[in-house]
## 1
Amino acid sequence: MPSANLARVTHLRPVPDPKPSQPNGEAADRQTSVAELERWATALRIDCVSMLAVAKSGHLDSSLSSADIVAALYYRVLRHDPQNPDWPERDRFVLCKGHAAPIQYAALAHTGYFPREDLMGLRQIGAHLQGHPDMHRTPGVEVSTGSLGQGLSMCLGICLALRLDSLDDTAHVFGILSDGDCQEGQTWEAAAAAPHFGIDNVTAIVDYNHLQTDGTTEQVMDTGDVRAKFEAFGWDAVEIDGHDMEAIVGALERSRNLERPAAIVCQTKKGKGVSSMEGRFGFHGKPPSPELAAEALAELETRLEQQREAIDG
Amino acid sequence: MAEAKTEPAATRNAYGDALVELGELHEEVVALDADLSVSTQSAKFGKRFPERFFNCGAAEANMMSMACGLAATGKIPYASTFAIFAAGRAYDQVRLGIAHNELPVRIGASHGGVSLGEDGASHQMIEDIALMRAMPRMQVVVPADYNQAYRATLESFEKEAPMYLRFGRPATPKVYEEIPETLGGGVDVVREGKDITLIATGHMVWRALEAAETLEGEDGVEAEVLNVSIIKPIHSEPVLESISKTGVAVTAEEHRVVGGLADAVRQVAAEQHPVPIYAVGMGDEFGLSGTGEACMEHFGLTARGITDRAREALVLKPIVSRAPLFGPDWA
């Protein structure tokens, strides 16, 4: 494992550790508050910017648009145990939009699946953090993803296996899909299959940020009313603001207790949290320049400080 | 354990029969199909174990990725459909979800080759062995008859890695009298000889045996016949042993000669014991409609086709097998 080479990148300051209460494990009896989740989302975003600046490769804006959802999942909604990643009764999380791997890696590191310094090995030869999630290399990754359209089907396979093991009443499967996932036909094969097989322990979270490699989804291939599409396939489908933490937590927790597969379409902004990137085309798959990274970190660290003060009083 | 078949039977039937036995033996075995369960024979499993059988409809991509999810959660999935869809349509799903993840998914690909007949080129998969050989971590198994296919299916449960099993539509004469104990390394000498090696797989093995009979009767040539049931990873020793004895070989497969058995054998030979190796298989062409047997004949995938190639090879043998014109001393 190469050691973190953050030190070599002079324009980056060390990432401040938000030091919140323990997210899971012993202290799990107290739920992480919405304000704390928001602070976590900022901390995860900071890590994403740092990782991408060091790796000089990856999908930063796609990671940032999912940050609030991922923070809500890892710090509040998922029943998981970083010390025991193979706990059979755990909830499963599948990053169908595998290109947003940095945001999952940040969450896995912060919750204790592996040391935080590993994050700076992203996309480097010999490091375990691959460009897209790899189940055999990185603890906490359930299945390898990265080819759009396959993730939701993988989630359904996991759901069926859990049912055969009589774990489907407790273990829930959450997948985050991208706009690109919703353009792939396979996602709609899976959308048809879930109600057909009577699966009620899956939640498809669509990170609908409206931007893809070649332009806006409206220009490239309009995915339209994704919520209505899932509903037409027999899913319980809601639409929320994907950066409204209270709405995210509410929708995720509600989705656990439905008798149908659940879809949560999250209207998001690509690059959310970094003003110069938010909702702007042209950043997909491009690492931040040193200047942009420095600017982004300054903005995010200021926010983190404000969020910390608001919580600590 | 099923009875060994003595009459012609389809290898896909063996898959269906063995799958039921596997289901009885192992609770973690599950089966998936894509609306072809009667053809692939996985319906037998579905009838016996409805709660462990998932018919995904005509949605092969979804089926393969679901198999990935099931395997990642501790099940041993057997996913079946026609070879054309298993290896062609769902290639990327098999690649990332199954092979890359090294998950114990077994792909039961039926109706391989042109012998499925009437449905024609759109359904006749003649490049699946090439595709699956090229895929890292994927094992490729092509049984020769019902009895071997039954063993191949049963034995697949024990293997760690993902596996592509190719079965055929038509009833096929037996090569093995009994259900073999094991596939072993995947290369069996099914007839001994000294003059030429006929290396065949799948539906071409019984034809190679027939060709060997003809060569003996009409030409006085003693042909050795190898059945390669595991094409990847290919067990090179028995191949090398045979070709170093005979000095010339003909491969036979119901598949493109590119990327299939011919290339696998030639690769072994080229590196370790170069001898002339002729190939019987599909050229740069697609299949067409007709009865299965008519299709096989049209493309020369017959005992006669193998015999003809063997005779060509034998003509060349004394020329190419003799000592090089420029010996080792030449510099």
## 2
Amino acid sequence: MGVPAARTGRGEVIRLREVVRSRPSGKVLGVLSALALAAGTIGIAACGDDDDDGGDGVEGGEIKIAQTSQPDFLDPALSYTVNGWEPMWLVYTPLLAYPHEEGTAGSELIPGLAEDLPEVSEDGTVYTLTLRDGLTYSDGTEVKASDFEHTIKRVLNLESGGSPFYLAIDGAEEYLEDGDPDADISGIETDDATGEITITLVEPDAAFSNVLAMNFAGLVPGDTPFKNMTEDPPPGVGSYEFTESVPNRQFVMERVEGFEDLGLDEGIPPASIDKITTEIIKNIDQQAQDVLANELDYMQDPPSPDLKPQVVEEVGPDGIEEQRYEEFTTSSTYYFFLNVNEEPFDDPLVREAVNYGIDKPALARLFAGELAPGCSFLPPGMPGYDEAFDTTDCPYGDPNDPPDLERARELIAEAGAEGAEVTVWGNNDAPTDKVTEAYTEMLNDIGLDATPRILDGGVYFQTVGNEETRAQTGFTNWFQDFPHPLNFYFLVDGDTIQPTNNQNFGNVDDDMIDDEIDRLRLETDLDAVAEDWTALDEYLISPPQSYIAPYGHRKLALFLSDRMDFESAVFHPVYNNDYSSWQLKESE
Amino acid sequence: MAARDETLGPDRGGSEFSPSLEIELTAEERRAGLAGAGPYRLAARRLRRNRIALSFGGLFIVLVLACLAAPLWADHVAHRDYRDIPGSSETVTKGGEEVFVVGLDGVPIGPTWRGEYFLGADGSGRDVMVRLLYGGRNSLLIGIAATLITTFLGLAIGLAAGYLRGWVDNALSRLLDVIWAFPVILLGIALGTALALGGLKIGPLEVSGSSLAIPVFVIAVVYIPYLARPIRGEVLALREKEFVEAARAQGQGPLRIMFSEIGPNVVTTLIVFFPLLVANAVLLEAALSFLGAGVQAPEPSWGTMISDGVDRVVSAPHLAVVPGVMLVLTVLALNVFGDGVRDALDPRAKVRIEH
């Protein structure tokens, strides 16, 4: 299992928490999409707005963009960071996909390389799809149904961070144990003649369609080697192809001629820009200066807090010049875990007090304003998310208002927890260290005796996820891997608790939550059970449970050069910046 | 009883108690009739006449006193503790307006030049002046404490290695070589990071990773060779002197000879080294804290403050500049004063800190 990391321009390393798959119990192991933050910055103008009517850009042209660090891999089987997913979802299309649209529309599943959405058996374990006719990879190779099984074999065989998702397939574990890369996965049957693909799961999993739409499942030819192909990325089916890859220097994507002739769903449009050169530029401030000076067309990371005021002043929504910078809220949640197995957080009153005491607007400022104060666990854009819960309906008061410290102190006193010693865990990635310090001071302010413990980002999650650490409380966050509540709720599912690499840091083990997760996992019609997820969210957060202490949802920013048509750019709710929507201005 | 050094003559200062100290008198000192005066008296006179060294020595004292007065400033002027983080709704008057201590964009206020937030706020909203003074206490405490430990251990090791010779000298010298082989900053980072994570456990002694004792220990260890080696060199020469032979002949044991006979003769070396080592120790502490391997949050130090300020060089330059200036002034003061002490005690500049 990999723990890929994305380094933002500010040096913040957002670690993907290790995908911990205990057993293929049918529960989806959420994988942290840490990159959403780093890579998703460049969104689209008016992210979340529905008034994107496109711009007046032109077809063609070449642009130069920057990332702060090299993507973990340029191999769809391996990449598990935003740096990697943001370019690669345009190069490798899976059987299922998401339309290139903003907001909730972009979260709806559509057929990708498959003709239609899968037929799912009554017991929810068998998925049947048919490959479209006449598909070819960017190198002209014919796409075959058997390529799907090979694609999944690569994910499993290369010990990808995404492999736990596909261990839900019957025979996947045996395939791994067998150790023969060319062996069959019994749960995948394909027929190249008819294009039929049948996938049998070990247990029903309502989120498996989303798993099929993940970048890991982007099809590659059946002869793609079982090795990391970053230096020579394999061909895929997409609006772009990789034509050059020099790790830690640059990589180049070029528009695939004839992509529009493949007849894919209209939600997967062809690209406009002919050539995109991505340079790796370590200095985030240099990137921002270059974009301001139009020497760079886009930067994946947000401008540093130091330069952000200048950027906002010049090209923000109310800037001096034409707007080419805007912020939008991502499908992420930042929260503090509260270990119910350790004093004093085994006491519901103390957990409730913590929720009353958190100064969410103050924490938002530590993120240079790039955090929308919130109260809910499910993030904006996620089915089941209730916006009211992030404002008026929050049981602890409006997250945008100052905290109720008096109430928090009363609860601490009522619990008899005054002076209780607490170690607050955080990592040294900015601004997590400052957030941890601020949280510590708040705990002291309400009557506890708290001390911060800051670890290196590279070891943080493994440390707090080890039961021997007995971490009482600390920093954590989650970015969606795909738009399904299961991707978040495994973090509070009692069945996922394990002694090491535990992702349920608070050891939340509530029968009501566990049973509800198990029930909702079987429901493939997400719209029909969205309210049930909302109710579960309310139960999780509200007293007397107060199992976690959420404080907001991270924002990202879209920042383009003056050459780019800002209005045409689309920010995708799953993959953030959609390069295929970009256009140069007509004057170019 | 120490014998008088034969090298001393009417034109040289010296003392039967410091036969190794050869101070050449200037013509002015000879005219002043200081021939035969004790070396410390001569050194004190020279130091008094070095106005520049005294000025910087005075500057250092002022800095120390200011830092010691941190609680007074915090309680009576700023009305804030160094850990106080203001609430999101808290405002302060600046330029006649009520402004948030930390703006909605995360930019903290600059200097108000009044009691509260005199030098502005940091990114968390904490008072920079208060943290500067408390940070100075930590930085100076660590620097001085580490130097004291270095002095004690360096003296002990240097004496043992230089006097006992043989396998003791070999073993200690090789130990010093191992420490010396590592660049100071790299060794400091490695030790500091490891100990900050797991703390220090030696038998019943247990020190938390966030304790100030950790950087004290790290800095003390890395600088031991810088003192022990020159001490050893001096001791190698002193052990052959007649007064040492006389002490042996009188039946004094090695320990007594080392600390009673030879030890006083290397005191001048320690005096010369001390301020210079403190300067280096303060600088190293700042570097380690800057890199996260020294003082741990929420305790401030000039190094952690500079580290916090580096990310805000454009929007809030005071965060990095102010602690940086304090660090420069402190190290400069110690170095200039230390040079003055060395010039007074060791005019031939035989003793130097080598890097």
